[in-house]
What we know:
The protein has 13 helices and 16 strands. By secondary structure, it is of the alpha/beta class.
Amino acid sequence: MDYSKFFSEDVGSFMRSPVREIFKKVDLASIYSFAGGYPDAATFPLDDIRRISAQVLDRYGAKALQYGATQGVPELREVIARRYGVAVENVQVTTSSQQGIDVCTRVFANPGDVILTTSPTYLGALQSFKSYRADVRTLEEFGFSLGSRSRLPRDNFALRAHPSQADAWAPPVYEATGGHGCPEQAAPAADIPVKFCYVIPDFQNPSGETMTLPEREALVALAREHDFLIVEDSPYRELRYSGEPVPTIYSLAPERTLHLGSFSKIFAPGFRLGWILGPTELLDQIYVCKQSLDLCPPIFDQYIAAEFMGSGALDANLAKSIALYRAKRDKMLSLLEKYMPSGVTWTHPEGGLFLFLTLPEGFDTVALYDRALSAGVAYVAGSFFYVDGSHRNTMRLNFSFLDASRMEAGIRLLAEVIREAAK
Ligand SMILES: Cc1ncc(COP(=O)(O)O)c(C=O)c1O
């Protein structure tokens, strides 16, 4: 039977995650996998969860298993509000931060609207943006680069589109003013209707890099000047192993920022819980949208998370996780130093779960992938995180999942695969 006529037009824009395709192909336990973003299972607080689950059932009884408020249970909203210094009405609980990204895209972006992001950026966000047929553009196109290639926007930074195209909702022709690839005889231009800029300022997935304060301030200035929102996705913010915290973008511009948080990396991803901090007027539309998505986040999970966060158990567990991940990050950096051939470089993250490798020009990590897998080691090709699929000589490596000895065996293998490919 031909099912194709049943699918909506949106389906044509859905992107399959190459990371999840990798998981389908191989048994993770049988290879050295640097591919996923899995936390170390040793950080999951099994004893706390066992104890708190019983407490929640005793305290709330059947209420813990009933439907609940779409905004999240008051107990969880209150502890999140207290922890992050905001009012309860500025907190919406989500069924994970992936849902936070998706719901923001659904609420703010029409097909063809521009969403700005960095290059590279989080693959799961690209999947959401594309599924709503947004026009995903990069800050870099307009002279604003982050991380190791940091470059702040010029004074005359402007996002411009030809009005005829901007009106038609077709992907417009873009130009940056100030001679940045601007044609000599450009037609009169209008501001592009950018809806929001999506960034992961702390220990980015995939690069591991962190936006500096001047970069955050420049982004806020740009958003105010061009009147767009900022979606600040921060699932790794509390996993800092060195250096000093940088203020959140939300603290710099609470009137136009939606800050997404997640329990996945600081508690357990299986709980599928996150939150959005933002202006009440924006959260109200997100609340209505969420009614049709899942009615409410999982109630039992929320009560457990509220107790875990509010009682101090989260901070105790976080301190242990940070110590474990710091050692893993340091191990990974020293292994790369020890085994990688010359010409390979990598980022030095101050937190999070990933670092990003750049191989010499001419390497193709997509083509290299099957060879690496047959040798028994997995990574994610870096080009999957670029909006235009460029940077085929890069790869993302996760350092949280494998233990030290498997990490060493895996990095040694990966270095051999790269050395072989250079011959
Ligand atoms: C940057 C970023 N945002 C969101 C997510 C999704 O996390 P969650 O488990 O909260 O849906 C991830 C997961 O790896 C991520 O790296």
